[in-house]
Specification:
Keywords: Membrane, Transmembrane, Transmembrane helix
Pfam family, one: LytR_C
Radius of gyration: 29 Å
Strand content: 5-15%
InterPro entries: LytR/CpsA/Psr_C
Structural class: alpha/beta
Distance between the termini: 93 Å
Largest sheet: 7 strands, mixed
Number of helices: 5
Organism: Actinophytocola xanthii
Order of helices and strands: HEEHEEEHEEHH
Protein name: LytR/CpsA/Psr regulator C-terminal domain-containing protein
């Protein structure tokens, strides 16, 4: 019986193993490059925001005595845009705020005062002119506050996210919103409005005690995504 040609067997066929190291190195390099690009974009955005919210310092302040009912006449320290990100905002009804006009637009402080009231800020003082800049503030706006007004300033930064944050040595909890030459209107986005609603709901469930929002007492719990979204704007 004839048999077909049979090739001699040299044992089990061996497969050449692929080395994963070059592919891993390529993925690692691409990941590092993508991270560097992302960090560069974030740095550029932070720098752009810092430039957009910057206000030049005012000229010499007039010599006059201030009281809790009048704005301070010495500008405090300008803070980084993200300085209040870890601060729990106060409900709008608990915020003591005063709007001062530092622009040449007549009635600007009055208009913003009414806008704040419509947003739920009940304790808004009578608007006045700015004793620091007069009418020469050539930026959008400032939020000025002291140690007692940090939570209130955080709330106001949700509705006016492009304001420069300025901390001074005032003793009370009043926060000044200074309107500059580049200001147009308050423009809280949907996240900011939702955050204000959540804060008001919390305030209704937790009647205000004497002295307002206390650092060692119950504080609102607001979704961090809402707070981040409220300030996620292009200034």
């Amino acid at each position: 019986m004839a048999s077909g040609n049979v090739w001699p067997s040299n044992g089990p066929q061996r497969y050449r193993k692929r080395r994963p190291l070059p592919a891993f190195i390529l993925i690692l390099v691409l990941g590092i490059a993508a991270t560097m690009v992302w960090l560069n974009v974030m740095s550029t955005e932070r720098e752009a925001t810092a430039n957009a919210t910057h206000c030049d310092p005012p000229g010499p302040a007039p010599a006059q005595k201030t009281t809790p009912s009048t704005p301070p006449t010495t500008l405090g320290k300008a803070l980084d845009y993200t300085s209040l990100d870890r601060t729990v905002p106060a409900p709008p009804r608990q915020v003591l705020v005063r709007v001062v006009n530092a622009s040449t637009t007549k009635g600007a402080a009055r208009i913003v005062t009414e806008s704040l009231r419509q947003l739920g800020f009940e304790q808004v003082a009578k608007p006045t002119n700015d004793p620091l800049y007069g009418n020469t503030m050539t930026c959008r706006s400032q939020i000025r506050f002291g140690p007692q007004g940090t939570a209130a300033a955080r709330t106001l930064s949700l509705v006016e996210p492009c304001a420069q944050l300025v901390r001074d040595e005032r003793k009370d909890a009043t926060v000044d919103v200074a309107i500059g030459e580049d200001f147009d209107t308050l423009r809280p986005n949907s996240s900011a409005r939702s955050a204000l609603e959540k804060l008001e709901q919390w305030a209704e469930e937790h009647p205000e005690t004497k002295g307002g929002l206390q650092a060692n007492g119950p504080q609102p719990e607001i979704d961090g995504a809402l707070l981040t979204g409220a300030r996620d704007v292009r200034c």
